Amino acid sequence: MAVSYKLSDGRDLQDVFASGNAGRTTGFKISTGSDLGSIFASGSSGIVTMYKDTAGVDLGNRFGVSTYWENPSISSDGTIGGNSFAVAATGDRGNNGIWKAFNKNTSDDYFNRCGSGANQDYLTITMYNPKPVSITQVDITTAYYGFKTAILCCSDNGSNYIDVQQISGGTVNQSGKTVSNYINSPGYYRYWKMRAIAINNNVSGWRNVHVSEIVLKGYVIS
What is the spatial distance between Cα 143 and Cα 163, in angstroms, rounded to a whole number? Predict the structure, then answer.
């Protein structure tokens, strides 16, 4: 999400401060020593921080209130691009809908695989939320086969994705282990995807993905 106020490194201030909360440290401070994460954490229309831009608008009005978000429990894949949280997956041999990995139930699982001729992006998991979300953590609970790594990426439109970082799928061939991946979120996006899913050191060709649960955590702008 952008408000067109940018730092020297090109990041929009909306993305830097929107998920701030009282006491949050961003490393960007004003001359009094106050961290900007705390100054703008509760920003919303009408709030007064006493810090104004050159147009005279209080910066509290430039940065929206962010609230904690976690993907809801779902009982079907849903519709990517629709009005509610939805998921989709690609691969050859899924045992269940990918929603089984997002139903907050670790007693079931999702399995898929691809064959020896598959490229690195043949096996994917896509996650969509109608309200842009800044994902800051991805928790993955393994089923037996698991997967080793994947690349998390994000998109504004569901077509053009930006790679964010590599994430871990946990321990291969061991069920019920949860690994927490902490994400250096690039901002607020409706579409997120896991691509280049690897088992052992295979990033192309034959691969499995076998998970009990995936939980996305982050912030949305209220």
Answer: 25
Residues in the chain with pLDDT < 70?
1-66, 200-204, 222
Cβ 151 vs Cβ 195: under 8 Å: yes
Checking phi first, is residue 104 left (phi over 0); if not, alpha (psi -120 to 50) or beta? Answer: left
For residues 156 and 154, give the distance between their C-alpha atoms in angstroms, rounded to a whole number.
7
DSSP run (H or E) holding 16: helix 13-17
Look up the pTM and report it. Answer: 0.72
* Residue 34 near residue 26, CB atoms below 8 Å: no
Identify the CA nearest to 123 among candidates 86, 150, 159: 150
- Number of neighbours of residue 165 by Cβ within 10 angstroms: 14
Q: For residues 180, 14, 26 and 49, what is the CA-based torsion angle, rounded to 10 degrees? A: -130
Q: Report pLDDT digits (tens) over 134-148.
A: 899 999 999 988 888
Alpha carbon distance 89, 96 (integer Å)? 11
Closest among 47, 71, 67 to 57, alpha carbons compared: 47
SS3 130: strand
Distance between CA 65 and CA 49 in Å, rounded? 13
**Cα distances (angstroms) measured from residue 200 to each of 54, 162, 204:** 54, 24, 11
Contact 184, 100 (CB under 8 A): no
Give the type of residue at 191: Y
